Give the backbone structure.
Amino acid sequence: MSACPNFLGWTYVHWLLAGIVSATTASLNPLGELGVNVENAWVVVGLAIAMLVLTLTIITIPLGIPKYILFLLLSVVTGTLLIGVFDRLDKKGLLVDVLITNCVIFIAMSAVGFYDNGNSVRFGAYLFAALLGLIVARIGLFIARSGTDSQKALGELNNVDFFLSVFSTLLFALYVAYDTSMLKRMARECAAGKAKPDYINGAMGLYLDIVNLFTSTADIMETIDS
């Protein structure tokens, strides 16, 4: 018998449960009940840092109860970070459109990852370099916005933000194909007894891909709508 039967199936179950927890958190708005403005720039930065710390911790510890607890906490923190996005999209009537767009992108790029015979994996270093560039650009944009009150400058920064959102959408669409291909490799290695099953690590990449896809496509559609 395989060392990890139904590895892909269980990984997608973990991915789906994390998404459900995040969506539920976003709809309940627990910090809002405590009087915290979740759209405050510094609150968003704090939540983003918490996401990063949790992600790095999760991928470095073995599968077990602590890892499940941290994965659950990551899902809650991510959902809290998405509260403002969900609320704005719902008020503008764009939420369903964004969700459908993300589903189409995710299914299409997952299919690419499943059927490209592992070719996506070869681009991992380039995707990571692009991701680092995107992070640096986002930090620079945040600092620039915090340091100016000029409407003209803010308008130009909004144009930069739109470009970064388009770039982010393309990047994480490619990451879906890459992480799907990596997931297939993990399943093969696990079946061959070369690695222990770790459904959370398998689900993490795709989970973060869809979260980033959601926020970037939401930014694009909000900009177009306005």
About this structure: Residues 7-225 form one domain. The chain has a mean pLDDT of 88. DSSP finds nine helices and no strands in the chain. Residues 151-191 form the longest helix (41 residues).
